[in-house]
Design goal:
Structural class: mainly alpha
Keywords: DNA-binding, Nucleus, Repeat, Transcription, Transcription regulation
Number of helices: 12
Shape: elongated
Distance between the termini: 42 Å
Main location: nucleus
Largest sheet: 3 strands, antiparallel
Protein name: Transcription factor
GO molecular function: DNA-binding transcription factor activity; sequence-specific DNA binding
Strand content: 5-15%
Helix content: 40-55%
Subcellular location: Nucleus
DNA sequence: AATGCGATCAACCGCTCCAGA
DNA sequence: CTCTGGAGCGGTTGATCGCAT
């Protein structure tokens, strides 16, 4: 497949009817953009013909949706976005387009690539099947707390324009403001046991946690309310998406998070990661998780 | 400088779904 | 009901880039 624009022969004497494949040129991009400006999106086969592009309608559609469309966001996924992907994938699996609907400006292709190159790679390294219960636990106990921490850090430094500071004062989620209980690092093999012990002896703490949608910088009217804490000291997010106006569906998202901020306040391990959360070496430390 | 290799991402393919004739 | 074309989805792959040797 995609054997480098194969229709263009070296002699330049390509067949006029031949369909071009492979990377798009600037001229093609301009032509497609102009055509869409003139006649709008949709009817891709027709558009491909009318535009003079030697591309299939399908190819035009993909190029527009994944690359040329003005609201397509470029650049690395933020911790907030990564967190949301983990959450939504745990609920919907490989429903990339559905997941992408909840990440404005991100395409299903981009999310799919992220999942395969980052998440699945890590899982493979740990010899964990991404469909397994083990993987679920890994995400819940290790990656999500880490991403939450990163999300908080980026929020408190006001680095993210999407963060709505008005609805989420920094002090509300600042780990430093919390008196930490006995520290338990998520990478500790006894992590869960210790947490359960904390709970049974009453030392398990909870505190006011911003709701995930707020943490992610979404306007609260995108979501319903429904934060709860269960008997094991885990948060349960339970919110439905508003229908219609935002394109969200009616389904409810349920996720549980352990109350981990205490140990995150004491361990500055997040700073050990540069831009890449998914540091393989650090991930290896979590091999103890597999028992 | 040349080469090899892994990571990333853009793009293609095959398939399904759906609406309209 | 069947057929057909458009649209969209998920899986896969080739090109490219950057880093290591």
């Amino acid at each position: 497949m995609m054997s480098s624009s194969k229709s263009v022969s070296s002699s330049g004497s390509e067949d006029d009817n031949e369909i071009r494949r492979g990377p798009w040129t600037l001229e093609e991009d301009n032509l497609l953009t102009q055509s869409i400006a003139n006649q709008g999106e949709g009817r891709w086969n027709l558009l491909a013909k009318c535009s003079g592009l030697k591309r299939t309608g399908k190819s035009c559609r993909l190029r527009w949706l994944n690359y040329l469309k003005p609201d397509v966001k470029r650049g690395n996924l933020t911790p907030q976005e990564q967190l949301l992907i983990l959450e939504l994938h745990s609920k919907w699996g490989n429903r990339w387009s559905k997941i992408a609907q909840h990440l404005p400006g991100r395409t299903d292709n981009e999310i799919k690539n992220y999942w395969r190159t980052k998440i699945q790679k890590q899982a493979r390294h740990l010899k964990i099947d991404t469909d397994s219960r083990e993987f679920e636990e890994l995400v819940r106990r290790f990656w999500i707390p880490r991403l939450l921490q990163k999300a908080r850090e980026s929020s408190s430094s006001s680095a993210l324009p999407i963060q709505n500071q008005a609805t989420m004062p920094v002090s509300q989620y600042s780990a430093a403001a919390i008196t930490p209980p006995p520290c338990v690092h998520p990478t500790c093999p006894n992590y869960l046991d210790q947490r359960l012990e904390q709970h049974s002896n009453g030392s398990c703490v909870s505190f006011s946690e911003p709701k995930l949608p707020q943490l992610l910088g979404y306007n609260s009217n995108h979501f319903g309310n429904g934060l709860d804490t269960d008997e094991f000291g885990t948060f349960t997010y339970d919110y439905g998406y508003h229908v219609n106006s935002n394109g969200y569906d009616n389904e409810t998202l349920n996720m549980e998070y352990p109350v981990d901020d205490c140990q995150m306040a004491r361990h500055n391990w997040v700073n050990d990661f540069a831009c890449d959360l998914w540091n393989m070496d650090e991930c290896c430390q979590f091999s103890n998780f597999k028992k």
